[in-house]
Amino acid sequence: MELRFRASLVVLLCLGGVAVVDAGQDVCRDAPVAVQVLGSGGPFPRDGRASSSYLVWIDGRTRLLVDAGGGAFVRFGEAGARIEDLSLLAISHLHPDHVSDLPALLWLSQVFRTAPLPFVGPSGNDSLPPVDTFLDRLFGEADSAFPILSGTRGGGNAGVRLDVTAVDVTAAEPTLVLVTAELSVTALGVPHGNVPTIAYRTEVGGTSVVFGSDQTGANPAFVEFARGATVLVMHFAVTEATDGPRHARPSVVGQIARDAGVDTLVLSHLSGLDPAHPRYGDFSLSDLDASVAEVRASFAGNLIVAEDLYCLPVE
Ligand SMILES: [Zn+2]
Ligand SMILES: [Zn+2]
User: Fold this and answer.
1) Each residue of 248-257: pLDDT tens digit?
2) CA-to-CA distance for 50 and 97, rounded, in angstroms?
3) If you measure from the C-alpha of residue 43 to the centroid of ligand 1, how many angstroms do you get, rounded to a whole number?
4) Are 314 and 26 in contact (CB under 8 A)?
5) How far is the CA of 60 from the centre of ligand 1 (A)?
6) Which of 130, 133, 153, 222 has its CA 20 to 30 Å from the CA of residue 291?
7) Structural contact between residues 26 and 35, judged by C-beta atoms closer than 8 angstroms
8) Residues 277, 285: contact at Cβ < 8 Å?
9) What is the pLDDT of residues 263-291, one digit of tens each?
């Protein structure tokens, strides 16, 4: 099974078959609804992949940005995305591979947009602050890392103002975080070690896209949350032999996709170390074929291994 490909292509693994699909941004612009992978990588700078970031396009406009890990700034521009078109910027959790390009994306954003930008992220716990405090520490007018971006927090400097909501990650039921004429977005806390983390689901017309984020897969409510999704994006960081506390093993990813009855599963957040590293074998890129086979043992629907800038029409 061929899983290595040119940067502009992905392999679509259907039942027993392999199809190569173009990943050009025109696909996203022309589709009524599309999801685009900006960053298909994890926390390690391997394989030319940016860290976690995704767009949802509706009628040629970028309405939803989920996560902004390292490299998202460059991919956002390459995709032709526009901050002024966003209905929501949603952050799954505060690990740097999901948020570290926020300053780059928001710098001088007031040049493009004057309307406040709805922004949602996780509540806090003993180890991490809620997302609004995180943003104050980044961009607040006093004692922050980037006071020059205090406009994002209602101050007088640069940056479009963020209209921030912190979602309670302990809530048993999904939280509705946005409704517009085009889309709705709900959020659900998922287990990711001790890091408050959110999965997002967006409904557009009769289609739905679920972003599972980093998680162990141990919250059974997530299967209900993802039920019947047109597209489910799952993070695929570790190999089956790994017993880490933060990421779902490939077999668990496959079981979730099967149990939720999704049409298409996108495997992203692919992670790897240098082959000389003693933990090389813990991460998905060390043997992607073997990890995908673990998913295939339970999930028979469409299966896509993500590449940066890959665009998937949602229908
Ligand atoms: Zn991550
Ligand atoms: Zn994480």
Assistant:
1) 999 999 999 9
2) 9
3) 6
4) no
5) 28
6) 222
7) no
8) no
9) 999 999 999 999 999 999 999 999 999 99
The ligand that comes nearest to the alpha carbon of residue 97 is 1
pTM, two decimals, is 0.93
Q: Is 98 helix (H, G, I), strand (E, B) or coil?
A: helix
- Measured from the alpha carbon of residue 42, the closest ligand is 1
How many CB atoms sit inside 10 A of residue 7's CB? 12
**Distance between Cα 181 and ligand 1 center (Å):** 31
- The domain locations on the chain are 9-313
Take residue 105 and report the two structure tokens written for it: 């994306």
CA of 277 to the centre of ligand 1 (A): 19
Ligand nearest to the CA of 67: 1
Beta strands at 197-204 and 162-167: parallel, antiparallel or unpaired: unpaired
Q: Which amino acid is at 50?
A: A
Are the C-beta atoms of residues 65 and 118 closer than 8 Å to each other?
Answer: no
Nearest CA-CA partner of 72 in 240, 312, 308 = 308
What's the pLDDT at 17?
38
Residue with tokens 């299966």: 303
CATH fold of 9-313 reads Metallo-beta-lactamase; Chain A (3.60.15)
The ligand minimizing its distance to the Cα of 283 is 1
Ligand with smallest separation from the Cα of 238: 1
Q: What are phi and psi of 110, to 5 degrees?
A: -65, -15
Gap from CA of 104 to ligand 1 centroid (Å): 19
Taking alpha carbons only, the member of 188, 170, 195 closest to residue 247 is 195
- For ligand 2, the distance from its centroid to the CA atom of residue 97, given in whole angstroms, is 7
Centre of ligand 2 from the C-alpha of residue 93, in Å? 7
Q: Three-class SS of residue 243?
A: coil
